[in-house]
Amino acid sequence: MEQRRTRRFKLHLPLALTRAGAERMTIPGFTQNISSSGVLFTSEREPDLGTPIEYVITLNHDGPQAVNLRCVGKVLRAALLKEAIEEQPPAYQIAATLERYEFVRER
């Protein structure tokens, strides 16, 4: 039986990968689960293992005012979920730590 230090919550929320290492980017994705120490999400790009990343999770995206959670962590693992086909880019499942975060409200 798998034992984890922190409880995971299955949440399907919009996520944008905004930085991998020193490279700035905006690559969309979705969370699969979140805990107080990390996140599992999907993305079109595979970041390098062990590199620092920055990602933004959008909370209350259907509400009157979205609230963004800007997070900083490190890539723990990444796996290819599906190969690219003409209409769709590849999809990767990425596990990353959640080392720091801040709430950012849209104006």
Task: Characterise the protein shown here.
- It is a single chain.
- 0% of the residues lie in helices and 58% in strands.
- The protein has 107 residues and is mostly beta strands.
- The chain has a single domain (14-105), classed as Thrombin, subunit H.
- The chain has a six-stranded antiparallel beta barrel.
- It is globular and about 35 Å long.
- It has strands spanning 14-20, 23-34, 38-43, 52-59, 67-82, 91-97, 100-105.
- The chain contains no helices and seven strands.
- Strand 4 and strand 5 form a beta hairpin.
Secondary structure elements and pairings:
Elements: E1 14-20, E2 23-34, E3 38-43, E4 52-59, E5 67-82, E6 91-97, E7 100-105
Antiparallel strand pairs: 1-2, 1-4, 2-3, 3-6, 4-5, 5-6, 5-7
In brief:
The protein has no helices and 7 strands. By secondary structure, the protein is mainly β. It has one domain: Beta Barrel (Thrombin, subunit H), CATH 2.40.10.
Q: Say how many strands there are.
A: 7
| Named CATH topology | Thrombin, subunit H
CATH architecture: Beta Barrel
| Major beta sheet, strand line-up | 1-2-3-6-5-4
The CATH homologous superfamily corresponds to: predicted glycosyltransferase like domains
Helical residue percent band: under 10%
How much is the average pLDDT? 88
Which stretches are low in confidence, meaning pLDDT under 50 for 5 or more residues running?
none
Strand percent estimate: over 45%
Overall domain count = 1
Radius of gyration: 14 Å
User: What's the SSE pattern?
Assistant: EEEEEEE
> Which secondary-structure class do the elements indicate?
mainly beta
The number of helices is: 0
Tell me about the largest β-sheet. Answer: 6 strands, antiparallel, barrel
**Distance from first to last alpha carbon:** 45 Å
CATH top-level class: Mainly Beta
